[in-house]
């Protein structure tokens, strides 16, 4: 008998009917002979409704109380799901993050899991119950206050519990059939990937694929937990994310996993930076103090006649104005000339573990973009990824050109909407 | 500096605006120099909405999960209330029943408080916070599962916390100005009572006054906690329920506290019971097994010619059909002739601690009912109470007649609706 952790997001439990559908799915797994621990997000719009309520009483709610409020969302969904399972003739017990032993640091709103001590979950499973755990939440080790894990938190809860329970697999149920070679909304011929390494999934997630959050994949890699991303609306296999070799599989993995894209970044250019040692360090120290996450960085070759250079970097649009203001405040101190802010960029990334040993990949990549008349503004690479920044209105053409150039198009593309998994 | 526990029911926190109003009230108390611990119920219709949701997925939800679901209600209200207080410039921290140390037995849906260990509340108060505690909920000592206290549970939470914290007073905020000499909807001239002993309040509560639940008053009496019942819509003093003598008060308490009435009971008559020893015991053992709460009992004098008697008793209407069915199943075994079920009765009770030493009370009482042509069907008494059962359509006339006969009518009655305090 194996132990399966199943995670259902808010869109899978949006109303009573979908809760009942998810309950049937869980009971099927139980009846197939597996122990089942379920992680569930808040139902549909519950979180937004609670946030609205908070705004009505306070312009800036204290973070501790906001976490207390939001965690009511999973409390509702998990109890209702346990009831729906009970009405199918199986016993289920629901547990808050705190009861499930999800111990975090004390950073409200984006707490990190420090430890998982799932004694009560283990007992519930041993007694034959299906265990339902509230995703997205935990309890601070130091303050004993209730915390939330931030975006993608329920996926992280699921993987962390799978690791602590030594589960055989962590199934993440979502509204698409798995991870695709590209966003099917842009590339109708995109194919579902059967397997993906955690390195590849990390690069996909970090470069715009919204299907799994980075933290969750990092956790799975560290504890060697296979993640099965699959649809809650069908019984088809999804995508298995694992570094374990497939059984009986001797052939090499495909060179390319897929093409990711990201419309969520903006570019800031610091113009006319005096070309002295330490200038870049000063600039990025100011940026770091805003806690913005910088992605790509390009520094132009210094113009000999002026002794000045331009430094460009990309970052999430949501951090953009904040960083511009911070830099503007130190303009005289650093001595740069001006700031440019550009939020009409797109990022395109080609990802594949096989790149390491296939030197022709970048040539094919740039030829494909060139033939599609895509202008490249910035480039960055890792061992298993090449990324470029383009104009945002050229991004879709670029994704299709690259996807096609690497032979990723399927004969009959599945027309499936590629979406996020909620929190 | 004194410590005040304030309890606000669901009708006092029905929406964002009323939460803000309650927050101002709490902050006023804090600014007056008191430590404040607040107990709050779920907002407005939240509990009903959650029950509806449960019904949509399960005809008979497991009690453990129903408690888990319903306790989301106070989690929302307490966090939102803490936010509203914070936006007024005071710090507040909210605590679940479990965090507040409300330890109960394991009976889901109607758990009893076993102990209160308010270490975290005490710390929060010592650090200068206003503490907000979820009413109606606790955690089982044995199973560690979340429990709810059942009807009136939030009042009980408030009094139990007041006792554990050694508070100076427990203020129960409601939608009326206090405890009245009678229901002002029936007796417009009813007066607010300034003080009431716990014995009197217990009799009032047990005999139909819905303003406080029995359990909460019992708790207050046992731990000697004064309860101040007052309106959340005005700053007037309400009714103080206490056995401590008022300062400087040497005069005797009034003979009569008030007139309570109850439309919630039904009468069952077991007709033609063989008049042997042990018959009544058999009947009431059957009734006890249904867990119904019996109130008044009358046994007629046995008719010599038949050797049979009739036994009548009253009980909550909600238990009626259930008990009739249970008795019907043992008709042949006990040998009675038939069962009568009458749910058109009303109960009228006159309550006053001064009755003990004023023998004329019952004469005045029965004369008043007689002059109003009220037919009396059953009578029961305690040291400080006389109750009668009448036809339900005569009840209001009876209440007015008795109220008037004991000089309780005020010159200018306050027209205030007399209602429950929610849960």
Features:
33% helix, 4-stranded mixed beta sheet, VC0802-like, 24% strand, alpha/beta, Carbamate kinase, 8-stranded mixed beta sheet, homodimer, disordered C terminus, 423 residues, globular
Q: Can you give a write-up of this model?
A:
The structure is a homodimer of 423-residue chains. The first copy, chain A, is of the alpha/beta class. The first copy, chain A, folds into two domains: 3-174, Carbamate kinase, CATH 3.40.1160; 253-423, 2-Layer Sandwich (VC0802-like), CATH 3.30.2130.10. Chain A has twelve helices and 20 strands. The first copy, chain A, has helices at residues 16-31, 46-57, 63-86, 119-126, 153-164, 198-206, 214-223, 279-289, 317-329, 331-334, 361-371, 395-405; strands at residues 3-8, 35-40, 92-95, 102-104, 113-116, 130-134, 137-140, 146-148, 169-174, 195-196, 227-231, 239-241, 258-262, 265-274, 297-299, 308-316, 338-342, 345-351, 378-382, 385-391. In chain A, the strands form four sheets. Chain A has an eight-stranded mixed β-sheet with strand order 3-6-2-1-9-11-12-10, with helices on both faces. In chain A, strands 5-4-7-8 form a four-stranded mixed β-sheet. Chains A and B meet through helix 1, helix 2, helix 3 and strand 3 of A and helix 1, helix 2, helix 3 and strand 3 of B. Chains A, B: InterPro entries: AceGlu_kinase-like_sf, ACT-like_dom_sf, ACT_Aspartokinase, ACT_dom, AKii-LysC-BS, Asp/Glu/Uridylate_kinase, Asp_kin_monofn, Asp_kinase.
């Amino acid at each position: 008998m194996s132990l399966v952790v199943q995670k259902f997001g808010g869109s899978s439990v949006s109303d009573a009917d979908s809760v009942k559908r998810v309950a049937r799915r869980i009971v099927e797994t139980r009846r197939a002979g597996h122990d089942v621990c379920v992680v569930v997000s808040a139902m549909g719009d519950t979180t937004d409704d609670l946030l609205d309520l908070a705004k009505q009483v306070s312009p800036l709610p204290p973070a501790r109380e906001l976490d207390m409020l939001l965690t009511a969302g999973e409390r509702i969904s998990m109890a209702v799901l346990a009831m729906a399972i009970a009405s199918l003739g199986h016993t289920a017990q629901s547990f808050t993050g705190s009861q499930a032993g999800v111990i975090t640091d004390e950073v409200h709103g984006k707490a990190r899991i420090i430890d998982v001590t799932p004694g009560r979950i283990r007992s519930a499973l041993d007694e034959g119950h299906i265990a339902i755990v509230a995703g997205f939440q935990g309890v601070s080790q130091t303050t004993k206050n209730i915390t939330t894990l931030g975006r993608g938190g329920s996926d992280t809860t699921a993987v962390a519990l799978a690791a602590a329970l030594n589960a055989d697999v962590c199934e993440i149920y979502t509204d698409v059939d798995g991870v695709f070679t590209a966003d099917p909304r842009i590339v109708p011929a995109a194919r579902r990937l059967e397997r993906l390494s955690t390195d590849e999934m990390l690069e996909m997630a970090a470069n715009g694929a919204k299907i799994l959050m980075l933290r969750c994949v990092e956790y799975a890699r560290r504890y060697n937990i296979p993640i099965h991303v699959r649809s809650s609306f069908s019984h088809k296999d999804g995508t298995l994310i694992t570094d374990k070799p497939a059984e009986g599989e001797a052939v090499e993995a495909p060179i390319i996993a897929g093409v990711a894209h990201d419309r969520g970044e903006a570019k800031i250019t610091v113009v006319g930076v005096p070309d002295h040692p330490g200038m870049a360090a000063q600039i990025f120290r100011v940026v770091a103090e805003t806690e913005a996450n910088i992605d790509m960085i390009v520094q132009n070759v210094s113009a000999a006649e002026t002794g000045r250079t331009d430094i460009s970097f990309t970052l999430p649009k949501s951090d953009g104005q904040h960083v511009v203001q911070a830099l503007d405040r130190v303009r005289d101190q650093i001595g740069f000339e001006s700031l440019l802010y550009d939020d009409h960029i797109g990022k395109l990334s080609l990802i594949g573990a096989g790149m390491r040993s296939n030197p022709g990949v970048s040539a094919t990549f740039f030829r494909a973009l060139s033939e599609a008349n895509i202008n490249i503004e910035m480039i960055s690479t890792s061992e298993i990824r090449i990324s470029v920044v383009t104009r945002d209105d050229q991004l879709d053409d670029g994704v299709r050109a690259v996807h096609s150039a690497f032979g990723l198009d399927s004969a009959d593309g599945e027309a499936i909407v590629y979406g996020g998994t909620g929190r």
